[in-house]
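--- STAGE predict ---
source: upstream dedup step, 1 unique chain passed
mode: sequence only
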Amino acid sequence: MNNYQLESLLNDFLKPFAIKDYCPNGMQVEGKAEVKKIVTGVTASQALIDAAIDQGADALLVHHGYFWRGESEPLKGMKFKRIKALIENGINLYAYHLPLDVHPEVGNNAQLAKLLGIEQRGGLEDGNPNSVAVWGELPNAMSAKEFSELLAMKLNREPLHIESGVAKSIKTVGWCTGGGQDFIDLAASKGMDAFVSGEISERTTYSARELGIHYFSAGHHATERYGVKALGEWLANEHGFDVTFIDIDNPV
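--- STAGE serialize ---
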């Protein structure tokens, strides 16, 4: 498939123009015109680019690409080396950030719910059909310890648990993969028993304790490896691409 046709296909599926983001979604670096082999991964790090080169990839599809709002603009240092490697090897770089978080099928939130067995009920942000934070219910109530163990088993990473300060089991769960810890206040206001995200801030601890909601920091990378993997599987199954998911270890 032509590289611009692939971008159009991805745009039609993920609908990036329907959500305001702080980075460009779609093709970020142009490579060879014909795309057959695609490597997917969470972040367009040098290690992932090198792996894509080794795989003979025509395209690299990621969740975290480049050109973030507020970042330094000059192409030098680490950014230059990454982009130089892509261009020299003719690798197209496609990146989808928030559109990949919120997609109802292959999105990070949807895939995390599937992994944990949570039935997604809707968004936490009232009036926003593309709410980045969502909520759902476990089939059976769990203790905080049981839920923490479920996260560790499914994500292969021990979560940081901030207790709610009240003795209650977990049935309703709010979540936002990646850096969504500041949605904890909204989740508490909606009556959630627990909130899950990838990161934690100093203020998150006090929100959990004072608002009576369990908080689980499960890792930015760990909570966001499943969306881009599912997107690659969709490209392989529905459109015949040769797709390889490569998970570059990241403890954060």
